[in-house]
Design brief:
Elements lengths: L1 H19 L7 H8 L1 H9 L8 H8 L8 H21 L5 H31 L3 H13 L9 H13 L7 H10 L1 H6 L23 H10 L9 H10 L3 E2 L19 H16 L8 E2 L9 E3 L2 E3 L5 H7 L1
Antiparallel strand pairs: 1-2, 3-4
Helix pairs in contact: 1-2, 5-6, 6-8, 8-9, 11-12
């Protein structure tokens, strides 16, 4: 009878560690048995109460990029790639040194993703807050971004650190809002290009409505396929999300094709003032930027709810 009881207890402990953790590590079975299943579960539900091993903290602290803001990551790792590539293109003779500089800048930027991956593995293997790590992996998969797409190569680690990890054990609405504002998501699903047609900022690459993020926000992130929304809701949400994105590069040149064919003196002055204001506008370290020049301020109907006319607050109402 005692043997059966011991086998049943061991099965329960293994089941617990396979569900709330990444499986049993040396010493975990004994620790759960000593604490008891209920106490272990309560402890894991409150990760802030569980001390992190000092050696793990020390190793994670060595990964400098984990604490860098999206703007700082862009400046240190992406901007040099762009500058080197731009210089290389400007050389008609195909300067070898400039091509090498571009290659070296790309190699240097790989450290960002490498540190993010290594930190995730170390926390999963050596961390004591196992349920938090399991939930971080779960929500990171749910709110998926792709490191192989452009700027997300330097922003995916920040996305986990800032938008996912702090909110894994909290309220879904808070997590949804954090992912909606992070530049990795806004770049991955193209909402940084989403622009109200006919708005003052509709020119160049910012030509009109982009439905990608609006559709995925409902289909994948919240309501699910056949979740009760229509194509009209996708369009309405896309209009609500116009201008919700990341700053335009400060040195972006406006091509002659993007300029109005006929423009009076006042319009030229206003355009220069807007451009100058953007140039000296303080950058938000988070990388998020709401461009009112590209937003549709009209009232909308979304999921049978009226969204009054307004700016960025329309997005918050839609997320609610």
């Amino acid at each position: 009878m005692d043997d059966i009881s011991d086998a049943s207890r061991r099965h329960q402990t293994l089941h617990l560690l396979n569900r709330l953790a990444f499986g049993p590590r040396p010493g975990d079975v004994e620790r759960v048995n000593a604490l008891g299943p209920d106490k272990y579960i309560r402890e894991q539900l409150h990760p802030e109460s569980i001390p992190i091993p000092p050696n793990l903290t020390s190793r994670i602290d060595d990964f400098r990029t984990l604490t860098m803001s999206p703007v700082a990551l862009f400046a240190e790792y992406e901007r040099p790639i762009r500058d080197a590539a731009k210089s290389a293109r400007a050389q008609a003779d195909g300067n070898i040194e400039l091509r090498d500089a571009t290659r070296d800048a790309r190699m240097h930027a790989r450290i960002v993703m490498r540190e993010a991956v290594e930190a995730r593995l170390m926390r999963a293997i050596y961390g004591t807050r196992q349920l938090q790590e399991v939930m971080t992996a779960f929500w990171f998969n749910h709110f998926n971004v792709f490191a192989g797409k452009g700027l997300d190569s330097v922003w995916t680690g920040s996305f986990e650190e800032e938008a996912i990890r702090p909110h894994t054990m909290g309220k879904f609405r808070t997590l949804l809002g954090a992912t909606a504002r992070h530049p990795a998501m806004l770049f991955y699903l193209d909402n940084w290009l989403n622009t109200a047609p006919g708005s003052p900022g509709a020119r160049g690459r910012f030509e009109g409505i982009n439905e990608n993020y609006a559709r995925e926000l409902m289909e994948l992130h919240t309501l699910g396929v056949n979740g009760g929304y229509s194509q009209q809701d996708v369009i309405a949400l896309a209009h609500i999300l116009t201008g919700w994105g990341i700053p335009r590069p400060r040195d972006e040149n406006e091509s002659s094709e993007s300029m109005p064919p006929v423009e009076g003196q006042r319009q030229r002055l206003m355009r220069r003032m807007r451009r100058r204001a953007r140039q000296f506008e303080p950058a938000d370290p988070s990388g998020f930027y709401f461009d009112s020049q590209r937003h549709d301020f009209s009232a909308k109907t979304f999921l049978n709810h009226g969204i009054p006319g307004g700016g960025a607050a329309q997005v918050e109402q839609a997320l609610d």
